Amino acid sequence: MDKTAIDARLPLPTLLSQALVAFTIEFDNEAEHRLPHRTSDYGLSAGAGFHAPWLVSMAMWSNCMRFVGQDGITVRNLHRRARTPTNLAGMLRWGYVTVSPGAVEGKAKAPQWAAVVRPTEGGRIAQRIWQPLFGEIEARWEQRFGQAPVDRLRSSLRDVAGQLDPALPCCMPILGYGLNHDDRLTNLSPPETAENEQRNLPELLAKVVVAFALDFERGSGLGLAIAANVLRVMYEKGVPVRDLPRRTGVSKESLKVALGFLGKRKLAAIERDPAGGPFMMARLTKTGAASQGICRALCASTEAQWQTRFGVEALEAVRGPLEELAGDGTPERSPLFRGLEPYPEGWRAKTRRPSTLPHFPMVLHRGGFPDGS
Question: Contact at 8 Å (CB) between 41 and 140?
Answer without folding.
Answer: no
